[in-house]
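Data availability (excerpt). The following record was deposited with the supplementary files.
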Amino acid sequence: MKTFQVDENGYYGRFGGAYVPEILYRCVKNLQDNYLTVMQSEAFRREFDQLLRDYVGRPSPLYFARRLSERYGCRIYLKREDLNHTGAHKINNTIGQILIAQQMGKTRIIAETGAGQHGVATATVCALKNMRCIVYMGKTDVERQHTNVQKMKMLGAEVRPVTSGNMTLKDATNEAIRDWCCHPTDTHYIIGSTVGPHPYPDMVARLQSVISEEIRKQLQQQECRDYPDYLIACVGGGSNAAGTIYHYIDDRRVKIVLAEAGGKGVDSGLSAATIHLGEEGIIHGARTLVMQNEDGQIEEPYSISAGLDYPGIGPVHANLAAQKRATVLAVDDDEALYAAFELTRLEGIIPALESAHALGALPKMHFKPEDVVVLTVSGRGDKDIETYIKQMKNDENISL
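Predicted structure:
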């Protein structure tokens, strides 16, 4: 029995559903009625698999991190999503959604982005499929992720800076939904994470599930068993985490560890630790955990990581936390930065700040020598290099 999977109405336990304005009802219902039919068709599977192999570069390696393993006293494998085309796991989802949009006759694509990786991945597949692309990005993120902004423009996308609210991911999502309301007929909204109204959380999780599908095969080859003792991933909206755990959710042999952005500290007022701080509410079309004040107004999140700077969480992860299926750890900015430099110095891999939060969970765990741990490096650190350079200038004698 699939205890933690989505039901026919788009709920994971009491989280999920589709809470949308009337003008979008037909669009969302059309997607609900068609996404599984398209995804399960032979034509979709053939092109999706071919593009993942020949365009994205899958399967991504499962790398045994010897020195990191020695540091933490277990066997740590890194799922190298950072080696995908465009530098993150996001391309798995955008490849799939552009094919679904194409099959449904859509000609215009919109997206939101925080760190810029989803925006770049969306712009990439729109260039590939010759579709118009508009990406909404908070002005704060435009400034701190300007390299990805230039990549999107080079790929032919129109990047629209958002100046409302905190000018980050939440606000970019708000504007993308407003756009969708104004262009419901010809537009497909490629949501970048396991958030939004049903069927998006399930659709994105299914498209990202290639990660755990590969982990099973790769572990069988390297460890002579197809499951780990621990799966660790960072979680903002939750797409790389959903992909990492998808085929293991109901396997109780596997412990799931989710690392969310603690910011300056969970109790500091500057945090994006939604599962720790959130209460049930509705955000961007789904019932989930939301950071909100006593009047139900959404609180502004904070994280050094643009991709984790979101006041909600995917309903799948809200349910896993509520059911005690996942252990959720808050990793603050300093812990994530330390973890990023640790991986770089020990293994020669510069991770994205988002992935650094997953790495920051390692010191908080207690492993046995025989434990097999798989940690997803969701993206590479090119986009965050200025943050890392600033850290090095502030602490020239970084010691690990």
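Summary of structural features: The mean pLDDT is 95.
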